[in-house]
Amino acid sequence: MNIFKFVLVIPVALALWGCGAPIVSEPEPETFPAERAVVEAEYIIDESDLLVAESFALEAEPSVLSELEIAGLYLMREEEKLARDVYLTLGDKWDIQIFSNIAASEQTHTDAVKKLIETYGLVDPVSDDSRGVFASIELQALYNQLVSQGEVSVLEALMVGATVEDLDIKDLDELMAQTDNTAILEVYANLQKGSRNHMRAFIRNISNRGGTYVAQYISPEALAAILASEQERGRAR
Question: Average pLDDT per run of 10 along the chain, which is 237 residues long?
Fold first, then answer.
């Protein structure tokens, strides 16, 4: 080192020493995912969305069901289970409350259909109630597809939720047109009311994240009418 460099180094070192102890950056406070904060405040499930299976079964009258009515009950038993299973899986993946809240509602929905199946002496298609297991080949494939899509991002998971409710509303429209059985119609009406509530919640959260949901199964007009109305409360008749 030459003398010139040495002279420069000493004042710099002394200046740094005089500044006191080295500055240590404080760790940033822990923050929670924005998704959780938005979603948990977004949807509080209405008590009427939690169906009491026994109350519907008590109202069921002795009847011989048509093949269409039986097929409809079988479809909705597994379709409501599909909703529950998809939401539980995506809730585990993203840890946001909307999925666990709505999964609790879907559990009572599939239980209500199961109770009707038992009341009419039919064989429950759900022999294995494990998550992600379905007797229907089509619903098994749909479950796999929806979970795969929903694991991409929180926004995609919410899109999946809206899609499940979209399908549910469409299928229930068709099934209600195939029966005049009072007990079945009342269960279906309450399932559909719940689906409309769930769809409103999912789409509000999609919009909050800058996304847009386009109807996949029901008409754009039907979707617009649902979104223009408030959360429904009380028992549907």
Answer: 40 40 41 44 60 61 86 98 98 94 94 93 96 97 98 97 98 97 93 95 94 97 95 71
Q: What is the DSSP letter of 1?
A: -
Q: Is 219 exposed, middle or buried (0-12, 13-18, 19+ CB in 10 A)?
A: exposed
Which segments of the chain does DSSP mark as H helices, in order? 3-18, 34-40, 53-58, 67-94, 97-119, 137-150, 154-176, 182-208, 220-227
Q: Given the structure tokens 């559909």, which residue do they identify?
A: 192
Contact 102, 86 (CB under 8 A): no
Q: Which of 93, 84, 75 is nearest to 129 (CA)?
A: 84
**Domains assigned to the chain:** 50-227 (1.20.1260.10)
Tell me if residue 46 falls in helix, strand or coil: coil
Q: The tokens 């379905």 sit on which residue?
A: 134
Among candidates 188, 40, 31, which has minimal Cα distance to 101? 40
- Alpha-carbon gap, residue 1 to 23, rounded angstroms: 30
Nearest to 224 by CA among 199, 205, 193, 206: 199
Q: Provide the pLDDT for residue 64.
A: 82
Which two structure tokens, joined as six digits, stand for 160? 């999946």
DSSP 8-state assignment for residue 49: G
* Distance (Å) of CA 226 to CA 80, 192, 218: 20, 11, 11
Q: What is the pLDDT of residues 78-132, one digit of tens each?
A: 999 999 999 999 999 999 999 999 999 999 999 999 999 999 999 999 999 999 9
C-alpha–C-alpha distance, residues 88 and 79, integer Å: 14
